[in-house]
Structures
1.
Amino acid sequence: HAGFFMRTAPGAPPEGMTMAATSSIGGLASGLETATIISQLMALEAVPQTKLKTQVTTEQSKISALQKVNTALQALVTSAGAMSTSATGSWATLAATSSNAGVTVKASSTAVPATFTVTVGQTALSHQAAFTDAHARTDVVTGATTGVLLKRDGQDDVQIATANGTLEELAAAINAADAGVRATLVRTGTSGGTDQYRLLVESATTGAAGAFELTGSDGADLLGGATVRAGRDASISIGGIDATSPTNTFADVVPGLTVTLGSGATGTADIAVSRDAAAQAGSVKSFVDQVNALLTQVASLTATSKDGKGLLAGDSTLRRVAGALQDAIYPSDGTSMAKFGVEVDRYGKLTFDSEKFTEAYQADPAAVAAAFTGATGFAGRIKAVADAASDKFEGSVTNAITSHSTTITRLNENIERWDARLELRRTALERQYTALETALSHLQSQSSWLTSQLASLSASTD
């Protein structure tokens, strides 16, 4: 700011006086708070720009809300896509049950509905060798050498060396060799105050193919020989057809079906493979809940009630999307989804009756699946609506976001133009108040000069 305070020597005429300038217009001559006055006037001048900035903030909030809706729509597209495909996913899920607790069964997507009986022949066992002699852990037990020999049919013999041939080292060396067997020391009692152990060696897997023989490195019996429990394969019979497995699990014994025997399984098991109505009802409920969550989100944003207005109150784009989602419940042939448990309530939300759905699905799973799947099924209709709204190029909600973004660009351009106008206005106000201070300073100087002149004349007269 530029301001002036004029000082005149007594007796000098105003026209001839010399003024000294200062760098302030802080009311030195007028006594006014000119800086404050200018700031207040500028605040009034900036009201239109402030309104523009508020509009920008509002538009940005609207874009954020629309983007959240768009994200929810895209998630709905994904869910609807999965729901509308009958060949995979939840519609292909089968539930398999067994009447025998010792026989469990699991169906994959390649299984087909069926019923049959499984008769348990035997369960699978690992091959075990329980050695006779008991020793202290530190006793040397390997014989003439410090190693042992592991023999299995159809495989090369494996020499297992130990450090000193003690019982403890032997068990550790067998486990470290990773040769398909594992060793355990079993405490059997004490002798002379020293704990005694016997060696138990077992094949790492069940089945007859796990058979082995463990001897001294020269082929002599180890630890007094062993009591052997031979390994064996599990066996079952389905309709008189025998099947075996090296484990208690029979994978794909029937296409898409895995049967597993418990360790003590015996007897027979009635197996039933059917459509999993409970799982499918859960999937449909989750899908309906997802649609309702989106409808709730849109309703909140577009609310126009006396209790309050939403951020996008009256937005026609979102209202059309909500209406299309509600209309998607009705098939094009004029029927309804009510018989499958899906309806629209008086608030515009979808409802799902799990019991009604389950009853319909158990009675005719193909008909229920047809009502939900495919391009014209319920899930397909929902997908079409969500796709049309959220498409990244032509989606209606996407276009709305673009429109609000364009509005923000235009508002920001206007705000920038207002910056220039306000700067010019501030400069003009500063010049006006500088001129005022200058003029007042001149008048004050003249007044002082006249006062001094009159004082001089009065003194001369006296």
2.
Amino acid sequence: PFFMDQRRAGSSLPISPGAQFLSRLPDHLGSTLLCLQMEDHYLRVTTEQGAALILLRFRDALNELADYPGLQVHRSWWVASRAIARLSRSGRKTEVILNNGQRVPVSASFRDGIDALLNLRAKPD
């Protein structure tokens, strides 16, 4: 589908990160993303206001969120950077704990990305 640029010609107003994706969400969910989880042909979107299922491929959601601060942590999970409270490791099992207490699995292939993000956040300015 074709999506028009939300900016007016000659305007210097930037489009907010993830604007195209966020426009798909029901209004009651707001726009502060926590995580996405792929469920069959649907996507469970969790925000600070709640959760809902939308019909969208995970890959398409990732493309639309390319400019939104976050990362894929598992083949079926994406998390917003600001939603990450901490990392939990138990043996070979690694999980991201979100600010709302939700636990999100981190697969080995995405572990380096989450480690880099958390190390970057831990460095003093």
3.
Amino acid sequence: GGAIGAILRASTKHRYRGSIWSTAGVNVLGSCALGAIAAASPLAPRAKLALGAGLCGGFTTFSAFAVELTALVEAGELGVATSYFLVNNVGGAGAAFLGASVTKVLSRGRC
């Protein structure tokens, strides 16, 4: 799972020419997926681990976010740095909540 996630992240970074916003995008998307995986009660524990820590962990990247944020602050780009921080953190947490909430609502309709 981790290898697949890392390949997906690398291809996204390449496609968007290494933009900081591609990092933010994968972090928010990965957070949404992880929230859904965590809330998916029918998944076996090993499947949750492979998909959550493996795929989502390999796809998202806190270290790139931290380095890119540091570079923005050091370059004096405080407005962009603030936006980038908020998108990654507030957007990521909101996306995880959304993913979990949608999964829970959808699973209520199943027998």
4.
Amino acid sequence: FLLIFFILTSTLISPNALKVLLPTSSAKTASKKSISVSITADLKYYVNTRQVDEANIESILKQQLAGLDKPGIILHVDKTVPVEHAVKLMDIANRNGYEMVLATKPK
């Protein structure tokens, strides 16, 4: 349900995002961008524009979001990526109290 909620309610454009084929949505949400996380079609993970190892992504997010008030993540996931990869990042955000939105492209 969280994934559907994020798909329907969030549309963001991030200058630090990689080019991934995003799902579309007609809803728009404005949010303070703290950090951008991207998963490409070939399952490579990026924090802003830096490629990172999937196993280390939680520790990298903790380092980069430490000390921020209401830290947030904008998740850019190619629409061909299996949903379990996005859910893994949503779980990391939930465990650490980060706000997360799923980026989509406008219809």
